[in-house]
Design a protein that fits this description.
Blueprint: E1 13-17, H1 22-30, E2 36-40, H2 50-60, E3 64-67, H3 81-102, E4 105-111, H4 134-149, E5 152-158, E6 161-162, H5 169-177, E7 182-186, E8 190-191, E9 194-195, H6 196-211, E10 220-224, E11 231-232, H7 233-247, E12 265-269, H8 289-295, H9 302-313
Parallel strand pairs: 1-2, 1-3, 3-4, 4-5, 5-10, 6-9, 7-12
Antiparallel strand pairs: 8-11
């Protein structure tokens, strides 16, 4: 960052978009000790309004923007490609263009869906992309737009994000398990479930290094940021039920995370048996080797993080 972007006598200013989302909500809290956090919800900053995106950055003049907002309705994007393109591609490119003028840094989240899922083994950052859906394509276009703008940036690809709040697989499984005797879940798509808090904590660790200027040479590029290990959607669902069963006797503050579940088993089905408007990659497993080497971040195994997330909800 140049001198115009940061004044040593002023607190660091961090702008977080998507503050009511899973990652954004956690970021507002993990980033708080580092400086002034301006956390904007969709009602306060809708990325579909590109003029508002530019105006907000010009008015707030943040040293770092963490863009946790996105169009994430994967299936709905197939029928709303223009809106998905505006939010996922054009908006982050505008952010990057503005930050180029001030010397600011953009941290942006992307997705495993930029790949076609045909590779055997973990994807690395330099593997060829080939999105299968509108969502994946617009997220890839966002990566490309940021790179083309030329500002200092970190693009963090993550996968299968969940939390104890918001709309996600964990909460869906718990809801369905309270209504049905068994769950039918896809067993031939593989990835790493990643807790939103883990993403926020890792991002904050990176921000610390950015502010200390210890990794300036790394501030242009794509990094994978997911939990370690892998499972299928069916395996993820089984783990949720197992952990819930272990923890259900804990006092719960809400009905959602209290009481017995009806479902006792998960039946694995194929992707073909569960057709969706958007095609998902069969393999979404990403390697974290690059981010570990560059920033010293060791991502924890997905199973242990799920347990912590469930403990956080049931207490």
């Amino acid at each position: 960052m140049n001198d115009s972007a940061a004044n040593a006598n002023q607190p660091v200013r961090l702008l977080v978009t998507g503050a009511n989302g899973q990652v954004g909500w956690n970021l507002e809290r993990t980033l708080a000790p580092l400086g002034e956090v301006i956390a904007l919800t969709r009602d306060q900053l809708d990325l579909a309004d590109l003029d508002a995106v530019v105006q907000t950055i010009r008015e707030t003049r943040p040293q770092i923007v963490i863009n946790a907002a996105a169009y994430t309705a994967v299936d709905k994007a197939e029928s709303e490609p223009e809106l998905a393109h505006t939010i996922n591609a054009l908006a982050p490119a505008r952010m990057a263009t503005e930050l180029c003028k001030t010397g600011g840094v953009l941290i942006h989240y992307s997705t495993d869906y930029v790949f076609d899922g045909t590779k055997q083994g973990e994807y690395v950052e330099d593997d060829a992309t080939g999105p299968l859906s509108v969502y994946g394509r617009t997220k890839l276009e966002g990566e490309q737009g940021i790179a083309a703008a030329g500002c200092a940036h970190l693009v963090l690809r993550t996968s299968w994000v969940y939390d104890v709040r918001g709309k996600n697989f964990l909460r869906t499984v718990l809801r369905l398990a309270s209504e049905r005797d068994e769950l039918r879940m896809v067993g031939d798509q593989f990835g790493a479930p990643t807790w939103a808090r883990t993403i926020a904590e890792a991002t904050t660790a990176m921000v610390v290094q950015v502010l200390r200027k210890t990794n300036q040479s790394k501030l242009r590029g794509v990094f994978h940021l997911t939990s370690a290990g892998e499972t299928s959607w069916a395996g993820f669902a089984k783990a949720i039920l197992e952990d819930y069963e272990d923890l259900v006797d804990w006092p719960a503050e809400t009905g959602e995370f209290g009481g017995e579940l009806k479902a006792r088993r998960v039946v694995e089905i194929t992707t073909a048996e569960y057709p969706t408007p958007a095609t998902r990659p069969h393999n979404s497993v990403l390697s974290n080797a690059k981010i570990q080497a560059a920033f010293g971040i060791n991502m924890p195994e997905w199973r242990s993080q799920l347990r912590l997330a469930m403990q956080d909800a049931i207490r």
